[in-house]
User: Fold this.
Amino acid sequence: MKTRKMNQHAIILKVYCYTPICKPLNGSLPRSNASHMLRLNQYSYKYNFNGKKEKKEASSVLYFIKGIKGVLRHKIANICMSAGLDVCHSTDKEVDKHGNRLLPEGYHLLGSCVEKKECVLHQIFGSKGHEGIIVVQANPITSIPHKTAEISGRIQQVHIASENRVNLTYNGKSVQDFSERYFSGNFHFEIDVTSCTPLQLGLIIEGAMNFDRLGRGYNTGYGHVQVNKIQLLKRTVTRTPVMDENGCFIVQNQITEESRNKHFQNALEVWQNGINT
Ligand SMILES: [Zn+2]
Assistant:
């Protein structure tokens, strides 16, 4: 039997960043002073033991990087505002339960533009009941101490630790302390922009270039992020079923990536010209 190759194409914007210290944390329970990063499965790997050929097995805990899409949305909303475009706010309520106005100047209620003239922010990110057109994702992070570890591309190697700190003192005595997880190092995230027009892509690229924060404690020096590199690429995944000795089909994924530099430059131009007209 001859099987047809099953190809899947996507246009991906890859954003490479560095953070000295970042706390993309889960909230803690009332009266608890500990906050954690979102913990995932264990990652198993092999490494060379004592420089010998013999390989040892070990594992390391994976964590999810929270909040990337939220920051990106915030950055893009700010760019639209400074370009004089009306955009959705993150709330769909005009006033809170105390009667305080929630909607700042230049914003409309979340999703209220759909019927009339949908704003570019809503086209990209959507709202409840309206799906956006991008997918934002980052490979899980982990901290692997073994220098000879065999690491696959589906994880990101960073430094992960806990900060234990006294945050309240009374008459020189500590009365409350807390513990928070953080990570440090190089990481990257991806935005699937396959469904975007050049104008939407140009705006997303500008948003990604301005990505400068993540997680908690920005005003006290945490969560500062520096974007070092951005790449637009076309990713093709080819899936082939290959029968193993037990009669099962192993799905082999072959991934190829090509840069799309002209599309990148064109998108930025279309976006810049789009706001000026
Ligand atoms: Zn809107």
Helices lie at 68-82, 120-125, 198-209, 261-276. The chain has a mean pLDDT of 91.
